[in-house]
From TrEMBL:
One of its GO terms (molecular function) is ATP binding. It holds the Pfam family ABC_tran. InterPro entries: AAA+_ATPase, ABC_transporter-like_ATP-bd, MacB-like_ATP-bd, P-loop_NTPase. Residues 3-228 form the ABC transporter domain. Belongs to the ABC transporter superfamily. CDD domains: ABC_MJ0796_LolCDE_FtsE. It comes from Ruminococcus intestinalis. Gene3D superfamilies: P-loop containing nucleotide triphosphate hydrolases. Keywords: ATP-binding, Nucleotide-binding, Transport. This is ABC transporter ATP-binding protein. The keyword ATP-binding applies.
């Protein structure tokens, strides 16, 4: 298994307020697949994503990616892991306001070993005509496309998306999901999408449902359909 998640536990708070938000998560994702992490708000989805992303540390258990255990990495190794292997897409884009679309995307390529060609990527993203605009001149969908570009330009093994359509209308959300799918097919990145939007499971190879820090249900989606 490319991504192996074993008995992951996470606590927040101290003393009386100490609560276990991940209660021993064990699962895995194969290379190049799209995995959707579903569950109600507060079920632990973002926490799990952030642990996979090396942003938060688990209190127990193990995560290995292509054989490397992230809990064994020191800070320097973790930052290299994030830089070379991971792309992150957030609900609210987090673009740099005074940089253009093209420059925001190039930020993602900074220090990367194997960056994609920015101009080709701008075309794939449908942003070529907008490459010299700054974020305030863009629609929400275009801002999210830019943020996907910044995440993907280093050609990461894993693309982590935290509610990528959470701030977008129905039609724009569909366009963004379609784009994520196109990127997955073109570059072969393993994709993990955290969402509370049940409809997104249709495009997934694997669906994992969390509730109260446990896996409630998981399955391979044999009826996967293309996002449209
Ligand atoms: P989801 O992404 O499914 O909405 P989260 O992973 O964000 O769930 O949160 C899981 C639980 O952990 C929630 O009860 C939330 O309140 C709590 N939590 C998340 N982040 C923190 C934090 N930094 N400090 C304390 N509690 C947190
Ligand atoms: P999309 O292609 O994401 O559906 P729209 O059709 O909503 O974009 O927008 C068309 C054009 O209007 C865009 O090229 C963008 O420059 C501009 N635009 C849209 N929304 C905004 C906004 N909130 N602020 C500034 N410009 C916007």
């Amino acid at each position: 298994m490319f991504l192996e998640i074993k008995s992951i536990e996470k606590y927040y708070g101290t003393g009386e307020n100490r609560t276990k938000v991940l209660k021993g998560i064990t699962t895995g994702v194969e290379k190049g697949k799209i995995c959707v992490l579903l569950g109600p708000s507060g079920s632990g989805k973002s926490t799990l994503l952030n642990i996979i992303g090396g942003i938060e540390k688990a209190d127990g258990g193990s995560i290995s990616i292509d054989g490397s255990k992230i809990e064994d990495m020191n800070e320097k190794q973790l930052s290299l892991y994030r830089r070379n292997h991971l792309g992150y897409v957030f609900q609210f884009y987090n673009l740099i306001p005074n940089l253009t679309v093209k420059e925001n995307i190039e930020v993602g390529a900074f220090l990367s070993k194997n960056p994609l060609d920015t101009d080709e990527l701008l075309h794939t993203l449908g942003l070529w005509e907008h490459k010299d605009k700054v974020p305030s001149q863009l629609s929400g969908g275009q801002q999210q496309r830019t943020s996907i570009g910044r995440a993907i330009v280093k050609n990461p093994d894993i693309l982590l998306c935290d509610e990528p359509t959470g701030a977008l209308d129905y039609k724009t959300s569909k366009d963004i999901l379609k784009l994520i799918e196109t990127i997955n097919q073109k570059y072969g990145n393993t994709v993990i999408i955290v969402t509370h939007n049940d409809a997104i499971k249709l495009m997934a190879d694997k669906v994992i449902k969390l509730r109260d820090g446990n896996i409630r249900k998981e399955y391979e989606n044999t009826e996967k359909v293309n996002a449209e």
